[in-house]
Amino acid sequence: MKLSIKFLMFFVLYFGSAMGQLPSQDILALLEFKKGIEHDPTGFVLESWNEESIDFNGCPSSWNGIMCNGGNVAAVVLDNLGLFADVDLSVFANLTMLVKLSMANNSIAGKIPNNIDSFKSLEYLDLSGNLFASSLPPDVGKLGSLKNLSLAGNNFSGPIPDTISGLISIQSLDLSHNSFSGPLPSSLMKLIGLVYLNLSVNGFTKKIPKGFEMMENLEVLDLHGNMLDGNLDPQLLLLTTATHVDLSGNLIVNSASQQQKFLPGISESVKYLNLSHNQLTGSLVNEAQIFGNMNVLDLSYNQLSGELPSFNFVYDLQVLKLGNNRFSGFIPNDLLKGDALVLTELDLSGNNLTGSISMITSTTLRTLNLSSNALSGELPFVTGSSAVLDLSNNQFEGNLTRMLKWGNIEYLDLSHNRLSGNIPEVTAQFLRLYHLNLSHNTLIGTLPKVITQFPKTTVLDLSFNQLDGPLLTSLLTLPTIEELHLQNNALVGSIDFSPSASTPKLRVLDLSHNQFGGYFPDGFGSLTALQVLDIAGNNLSGSIPTSMGNVSSLTSLDISENHFTGPLPKNLPNSLQSLNASLNDFSGVVPDNLRKFPLSSFYPGNFELQFPNPPSGSGQASTENHRNKQLKTIIKVVIIVACVVVLVIVILLAMFIYLRAPRKPQAQVTDKDVRRQAQSTPSAFSSREGAGGRVVSAQDVATSRKASSSEIISPDEKMTAITGFSPSKASHFTWSPESGDSYTAESLPRLDVRSPDSLGGELYFLDDTISFTAEELSRAPAEVLGRSSHGTSYRATLDNGLLLTVKWLREGVAKQRKDFTKEAKKFANIRHPNVVGLRGYYWGPTQHEKLILSDYISPGSLASFLYDRPGRKGPPLTWPLRLKISVDIARGLNYLHFDREVPHGNLKASNVLLDGPDLNARVADYCLHRLMTQAGTIEQILDAGVLGYRAPELAASKKPLPSFKSDVYAFGVILLELMTGKCAGDVVSGEDGGVDLTDWVRLKVAEGRGSDCFDNALSAEMGNQVMEKQMKEVLAIALRCIRSVSERPGIKTVYEDLSSI
Asked: How far does the signal peptide extend, from start to end residue (predicted)?
């Protein structure tokens, strides 16, 4: 009996103990976390965490990612599992013995719980690379045991709380790649045990606080990619114990004492220093010795100037990056010899370095970037041990024969130089070459067979040269080739090739704008890896083979400007994102899977190609309507002819009365003036009075236009004839701000491009965000905005309330339709906050009906706000606003020059539009020279000369063409206008008589009276020392912009200089 009682007591105690541990608090917490997991691609958690696999002691050590200490969970490690989850981290507060929690590189959402201080034992917390979003709770500072905290790569925001100083045990703190903001708290300096601190790529502002240099254990300090400003504290670099310091990508400047001497010194402990992408100025002359202990030095993308030091005997320096500064002079030979250096990488790109490069003899230098300078002469004889060599965007000339002695180059870029001659037939030195770019030179001859023998070539770019002869079709099937660019040459023949036995890797193929003939090669269908194919602008014909459906990865296809016929294939891949088949002779119906593309992908051209149910206002709709009108009855034809005869008689009678009438300039525009103006305006408008107001038509004035289009008249005569306003002979001002015209709603003229029923014109859109018909455009009331040598601008109000600026191009200035269309389509993707977007164009059936549609920007142009003349809009512009406008213009030009690689070509104050209540500046009327004939371009440049914006080199050229540097000159003139409040075309009275604005300013500055140039409206603000200093700095920039073309800076430099003020 006693034995049974003892057994029963043992069973109860044992079973009760086991039941008391299952489920434990730790297990419940883990199971609660598991509920938030939405997707576990590997099953690492969902298939492992279950109650059946719990150890007897109550800790699930057999669960994946769980580590135990006795009966408690000590670590949860779920890194790199691809988990998708939305979790509440507060459940882990129940894991009272949790030391490590790591969930890096998943897709877990949530926030830092407010009870984070409950994680008493936590030493390691890594939530990096997830989707957490919240601010840091103040109680995070109560994690006294925490040694490693990484929240990098999430969406955390807000400031770092001052309580961060409570992390007394912290050794590694990584909050990088988030959205933290505010100043860096000084409490960070109290983390005396910190070894690694990374706060990069956030939104921190204000100065870098003092004290980092006193943190004795700090080895890595990374603050790059923020908005930290203020002076660079020389003590930070002089006294720090860190080996890695990265302050790049901020707004840091030099103090006044550092303008001459860049830095007083750098701590011997610093091996890696990155100060790139800031606003540092000064010179490095005689300062190379302070970098003596470094391995990596990056000062690129600043405003450092002067000559380059030779860095002699800086023995440990391996990587030196000084690109995109303002260094000038020659490149020291010691940098390229390597006798006293062990450099492996040297970047001096984007400076103003000059001279020639005879030899590169360094035995350690592997990567050398000298691109975007002004280096000249022939190519170097030898290149040492260089594997990566970039000499692009310089002025090197001569032929390529010097390449014969070069070493084992792997990456070579010689594009955008002045190289000529043939490509040599030598290959030994290029056995390792994988990237070759010789584009934008003047190379001639046929493609050498040797380029098909480079065994590792992945990218080959020979575009924009003068190469001729047939295509080496074996290039298309090279086993390693991924990109082949041969566009804009004179290559001829057919493109016949046989598929390769190996799997092709070619992703990008551009053969556009050559002289290829024959049929579309069926072999293209075997290039299954192809993503981009461009064969536009050739003489190819025939139909498109169905084998193109095999190219399943194709995303962009341009076959425009050829002679292709037949139907478009129905099996082109659904992966296609961009298609241009215009200017061909396709017929049939556009396949269903291609109807997602805009009509501009198929038209103009392809007159027999049908697009079922095209959007309203399309060229196809116009073509169909025009074709249908051929079925009009005889009665309708008689009526139309009679109407035309009557209309011509009325116009001739009106012209006779107008020409006989006396003309007197009037200060104000009356209804009578409006009617007379409409009769004489050389635009797509004329007057037809009626009960509904005046309607203007393109065809109504054709007769009068033909009689006068060839006459050459002065700008003053143009203005007098068009508006009845005669500008002063001193000003030569051919444009009045927003024209000053005042209309009632009933008397507004109306755009009339005629409906498709009576006019075979075509309306094309450059984006898909707007859609309307030509008839809707014809009904739009139009107000004159301004006039220039190439046409007139109007504000058009469509029925749906959309406001557009419609620029009418004067007869004879536009290119032929094919060239016009080709250039206009290049504007489709121009999108920038400081550039006015183009929306489309209208091509009418007669010479005088060419309209360009763009966004309407209100309240008006810079000219209408700046010049002290009757009708000026608002009070005089303040200095901060003028400075902002100048930065906005420079930013817009920088986008056009570098992102779009086109000059503006017609920059003036009337083409700078101020947008919205903040008056954000946006440049307009850009690249019109690309749409105009040579005669039209010359007339536009002549007009710029009258207005004071023409660069001297354009005046000296017989066939002037706008350039990047001529844009900079015009921008410099606009800066002078902003400074002085004067119009560039005005004659300014001086002691020696009248001079133009640029000469007047130069004279004042030469006399030491530069401040006398400033607009009187700025006199009150000149009392502010900071603003006066800014004005003088902008004046200096303006004067640099109007120097001779060889001394004139690029817009990038100008933009950076203005932004730093």
From this structure: 1-20
Tokens of 460: 């080959």
Q: In what order do the strands lie in the sheet with 395-398?
A: 376-377, 395-398, 418-421, 442-446, 466-470, 490-493, 515-516
Domain regions of the chain by residue span: 112-282, 310-468, 484-611, 760-856, 857-1060
Question: Could you tell me the pTM of the whole model?
Answer: 0.61
How many Å apart are CA 115 and CA 95, to the nearest integer?
Answer: 13
Q: In CATH terms, are 484-611 and 857-1060 the same topology?
A: no
Q: Does residue 148 sit in helix, strand or coil?
A: strand
CA pair distance 531, 581, nearest whole angstrom = 17
- pLDDT, residue 744, reads 33
DSSP conformation letters of 446-492: EPPGGGGG-TT--EEE--SSEEEEE--GGGGG-SS--EEE--SSEEE
Cα 371 from Cα 387, distance rounded (Å): 15
- Thinking of the domain 760-856, which architecture would CATH place it in? 2-Layer Sandwich (3.30)
**What tens digit of pLDDT does each residue of 923-953 get?**
988 888 878 887 777 877 877 777 888 888 8
pLDDT in tens, 398-449: 999 888 888 789 999 999 999 999 998 865 567 889 999 999 999 999 999 8
Query: Structure tokens of 54?
Result: 């719990």
Q: How much is the CA Rg of the chain, to the nearest whole Å?
A: 36
pLDDT in tens, 739-763: 333 333 333 444 444 433 334 577 8
* Average pLDDT over every residue of 103-117: 91
Q: Any residues with CB less than 8 A from the CB of 390 and at least 6 apart, and which?
A: 349, 368, 369, 370, 371, 411, 412, 413
CATH of 112-282, one of 3.80.10.10, 1.50.40.10, 3.10.129.10, 3.30.70.360: 3.80.10.10
Rounded CA-CA distance 735/906 in Å is 14
Dist. CA 1018–CA 2, nearest whole Å: 110
DSSP 763: E
Pairing of strands 418-421, 466-470: unpaired
**Is residue 669 predicted with pLDDT exceeding 60?**
no
Q: How far apart are CA 882 and CA 888, in angstroms?
A: 10
> Which CATH homologous superfamily contains domain 310-468?
Ribonuclease Inhibitor (3.80.10.10)
CATH class of 857-1060: mainly alpha
Rounded-to-integer distance, Cα 906 and Cα 959, Å: 16
Residue with tokens 């000499």: 391
pLDDT digits (tens, 9 = 90+) for 999-1058: 888 888 877 788 888 888 888 888 777 888 888 889 989 999 998 888 888 998 899 888
User: For 484-611, which CATH class?
Assistant: alpha beta
First to last CA, the chain: 99
